[in-house]
Description:
Blueprint: E1 5-11, E2 16-19, E3 25-38, E4 44-54, H1 55-64, E5 70-83, E6 89-102, H2 108-111
Parallel strand pairs: 4-6
Antiparallel strand pairs: 1-3, 1-5, 2-3, 3-4, 5-6
Amino acid sequence: MINRVVLIGRLTKDPDLRYTPNGIPVATFTLAVNRTYTNQQGEKEADFINCVTWRKQAENVANYLNKGSLVGVDGRLQTRNYEAQDGRRVYVTEVVAESVQFLEPKNSRTNAPEKDEPLPSDGYGDPFGDSDDPIDVSDDDLPF
Length: 144
């Protein structure tokens, strides 16, 4: 049997970090994942998927991600239930994130250059970018 979930989306709010009575960190967050199609009005719709992660990964998520962060999640679907204070049974379906990948640099949305602003050159760009000449590579230059 297979229970595997792979998601790419943006956090809808800052992650919530808590600790179990035994001191184990647990972080919960919700991902907004765009659907691949549009509705009748031509607008994209999204699904809002609750995720939970544990231990060191939970602390990393809480420390380095915030509302709007783009992440990739690999995990499994889990349904749990508990009894609410009013005595009714509550069912929760969520993704247990076994791996959370940060898909953009921290603060990249706040420090991103405007569309027309050129990116600064670090001197390590394409060395052949300005040349229309063919690249001369002889067989002696190849390591195999």
